[in-house]
From TrEMBL:
This is tRNA modification GTPase MnmE. GO terms for cellular component: cytoplasm. GO terms for molecular function: GTP binding; GTPase activity; metal ion binding. It comes from Gluconobacter wancherniae NBRC 103581. Binds 1 potassium ion per subunit. One of its GO terms (biological process) is tRNA methylation. The lineage of its organism: Bacteria, Pseudomonadati, Pseudomonadota, Alphaproteobacteria, Acetobacterales. Homodimer. Heterotetramer of two MnmE and two MnmG subunits. Pfam families: MMR_HSR1 (PF01926), MnmE_helical (PF12631), TrmE_N (PF10396).
């Protein structure tokens, strides 16, 4: 995707609705010259932002009876003139309208091009644009809510406020550099040091908050334990699928089996692992090695225990669960389940819900949601640390400036051209 192709000099168009059979298909277009193209199709320009039923004509033919909407810039999604055609969703109609748009000088949009133009026109910043992509991809309620908050600018406002405070600090620092002989109050330097130290601490706390990444990517819940303790049965019971083979033979599960599951609006990946035991079987040993790897990487570990096993060796982060309570009851204070009778499963879901809530809820501050955000804040923090340790005022000022630029690149306020292709290339065509 080249810069020339995305210059905004031509009208672009794309189908905004998904492929497949449906009643309505929405064709959207944007760019200078949109009014001429829409007039050519409709005979006259509809009133702005009002649905108008029109007979679309081109080359002497009626293409469709469709609803047309005209969105004059700058008050449109992209900030440019644009329009939408709500067509009957027959493939022949969609194809014919697309051919007409090509004949009239428009071209097909590239992935993310509508949203990219919105960024270039100042209608959105990069964080909001990424949130639009997350909103389109949202599969759970928690992902939807998080994407909506970010699209509304919650994260942008936080980063902009940090950048604004850095600008004030930098202004004081420049005053100390430019007027060394003016006998400025010592309080000015003490104040700016306090302020960028406070910023450093706030950004570090932000980096420790991984709620956003967990909700966007989903949490990993690993079911671990000895062979034949009921791990596969629990995976099937929680997910409602016969995903794992269940037999009385120990060691049936040799490799990890993963199932996606949504619990109270949060996406989880349940992983059933090989039974943990000493073995000389090469294949089973590899399965156990992989099981231990998944345990280390997990956000939550459900460690299942047979009636004759103790929880004494488990870590504080693992949730001990006594299985087969239809044979022997669980000790006082320990979760117990029976996948045969269903006893205890409701309490297990409640405990798992509480643990997930503890991992994904926290302060009211908006969490970062992507690796790009984390890398940008880490860069800003590094420059603040260098500013704290700088021996020369000029060096401190330069580090403060670099920290502010790192924040600006997150929102797209500065130096964004190198980021655009990578970000918007992940979008769907109609966005």
């Amino acid at each position: 995707m080249t810069s020339n192709s995305l210059s905004g000099s031509r009208v672009i168009f794309a189908l905004a609705t998904g492929a497949g059979r449906g009643a309505i298909a929405i064709m959207r277009a944007s760019g200078p010259g949109s009014s001429e193209i829409l007039t050519a199709l409709c005979g006259s320009l509809p009133a702005p932002r009002r649905a108008s039923l029109r007979a679309l004509k081109h080359g002497g033919d009626i293409l469709d009876h469709a609803v047309a909407l005209w969105f004059p810039g700058p008050n449109s999604y992209t900030g440019e003139d644009g329009f939408e055609l709500h067509l009957h969703a027959g493939p022949a109609i969609i194809s014919r309208v697309a051919d007409a748009l090509l004949d009239l000088g428009a071209r097909p949009a590239e992935p993310g091009e509508f949203t990219r133009r919105a960024v270039q026109k100042g209608r959105l910043d990069l964080l909001q644009a990424e949130a639009i992509a997350d909103l389109v991809e949202a599969e759970t309620e928690s992902q939807r809510k998080q994407a909506l908050k970010q699209a509304d600018g919650a994260l942008s406002r936080l980063y902009d406020s940090w950048a604004h405070r850095l600008r004030l600090v930098l202004a004081h620092q420049e005053a100390l550099i430019d007027f060394p002989d003016e006998d400025l109050p010592e309080e000015i330097e003490h104040s700016l040091i306090r302020e960028f130290t406070a910023l450093h601490n706030e950004m570090n706390a932000h980096l420790q908050d991984n709620r956003g990444e967990l909700m966007r990517q989903g949490l990993t819940v690993v079911i671990a334990g000895s062979p034949n303790v009921g791990k596969s049965s629990l995976l099937n019971a929680l997910s409602g699928q016969d995903a794992a083979i269940v037999t009385h033979r120990a060691g049936t599960t040799r490799d990890a089996i993963a199932v996606d599951w949504v619990l109270n609006g949060v996406r989880l990946r349940l992983i059933d692992t090989a039974g943990l035991r000493e073995t000389e079987d090469e294949i089973e040993a590899e399965g156990i090695r992989r099981a231990l790897f998944h345990v280390k990487q997990a956000d939550v570990v459900l460690h299942l225990l047979a009636p004759d096993e103790s929880a004494a060796c488990l870590s504080a982060e693992e949730i001990p669960v006594r299985t087969k309570i239809d044979i022997a009851p669980a000790p006082e204070g320990m979760l117990g389940i029976s996948t045969l009778t269903g006893d205890g499963l409701t309490e297990l879901r409640r405990t798992l819900t509480d643990r997930v809530a503890a991992l994904t809820s926290g302060s009211a501050a908006p969490p970062l949601t992507r690796a790009r955000h984390r890398a940008g804040i880490q860069e800003a923090v590094i420059h603040l640390e260098r500013a704290q340790n700088a021996s020369w005022p000029e060096l401190r000022g330069e580090e403060l400036r670099l920290s502010m630029q790192a924040l600006g690149r997150l929102t797209g306020r500065v130096d964004i051209e190198s980021l655009l292709d990578a970000i918007f290339g992940q979008f769907c065509i109609g966005k």
